[in-house]
Write a structure and sequence with these properties.
The structure holds 2 protein chains of 2 kinds. By secondary structure, chain A is mainly beta. Helix content of chain A is 0%, strand content 57%. By secondary structure, chain B is mainly beta. Helix content of chain B is 0%, strand content 53%. In chain B, the strands form 3 sheets. In chain B, strands 2, 5, 6, 10, 11 and 12 form a 6-stranded mixed beta sheet that branches. In chain B, strands 3-9-8-7 form a 4-stranded antiparallel beta sheet, with no helix packed on it. The termini of chain B are far apart. Classes of the chains: A mainly beta, B mainly beta.
Amino acid sequence: DAGITQSPRHKVTETGTPVTLRCHQTENHRYMYWYRQDPGHGLRLIHYSYGVKDTDKGEVSDGYSVSRSKTEDFLLTLESATSSQTSVYFCAISESVLVGQEEAFFGQGTRLTVV
Amino acid sequence: AQKVTQAQTEISVVEKEDVTLDCVYETRDTTYYLFWYKQPPSGELVFLIRRNSFDEQNEISGRYSWNFQKSTSSFNFTITASQVVDSAVYFCAANSGGSNYKLTFGKGTLLTVNP
């Protein structure tokens, strides 16, 4: 199994508070991604990183920011959590720039509830 | 932009039945990659297969088989002699050179295999 660890695995937070989710990899893969999974929507890309300090937005990036100061860590921050951000968050890693040349490996997910 | 459609939201079968999960993709790129992932009740995402647009050969792996047809833009997944352990959400995904930073997922098909 690919070495991907997400923390925390579960979190309940209050509306308006900042929240940071962490993704840690031991594979030294260049590309890291944050997805959210919601019923009826499948998985949607929030942000991705193509190297240290190199990040870009995905399709549902509003209200989220990311940082990557080291190859192994990719942080997702909800600047001011809202109930619409209640979701399961998945981190993924990939070695190839095309992703398709190698499958993306996913972490175990973080279940976030905003009350 | 690419799009992946999984028209079957839920499928229920009885153990030992064969079942086919449909996936239709849309892309303007000539080079693209197609994937299937399995998400069992435990929640993790498990990679099943990757296919590139230049390889239309069907693939069989044990009870699993995949039928890739460019003429109909379909990449269907068949489970032969289904088992209870096959119960999961199955996601089809696509990636192409035009948007090489992400996988675009379908909304998933929930397969329930009853004993």
